[in-house]
Amino acid sequence: MSVQHTFAPAGTDSASFYEALNAELDAHLTGERDWLVNLANASALLALRLPGLNWAGFYLLRGGVLLLGPFQGKPACTRIKLGRGVCGTTAARRETTVVPDVHAFPGHIACDPASASEIVVPLLAGDRLLGVLDLDSPRTGRFDEADARGLGEFARRLVAGTDWPVWD
Question: Which of 6, 28, 29, 70 is least enclosed by beta carbons within 10 angstroms?
Fold first, then answer.
């Protein structure tokens, strides 16, 4: 028996929700490989489909710093050093970070004071770190391991379906 994810649409379990979300991403990637177009559509898709978000977007690694990329939400921090905040920590560790309460995360960077929880997923092409996918919510505890798995697959498909420039 599958457990229903709190934030998936009513009657949808997490696995089914992310399977449908990732299939929709695949449809957007079909016939389009430009990184800017794909990141813009991916951030819009996440903002549209995932309930309880106040920010959805990307930071891209350029010159050893995470630089703000396409997003949906309020204006955000423009540059984040590796190892700083949730995004910089995720980039440095190259593993997904789920933060139930951002106020308890040492060194959290508050771009939007309304954010209460966050999940950040690294964008990896083999050993190459491209950047991170960052989602914020005004709800404490919004993200869980089901989100980490589903968004990890979302990031994997996005990276595989996109042509990435070499910035550094």
Answer: 6
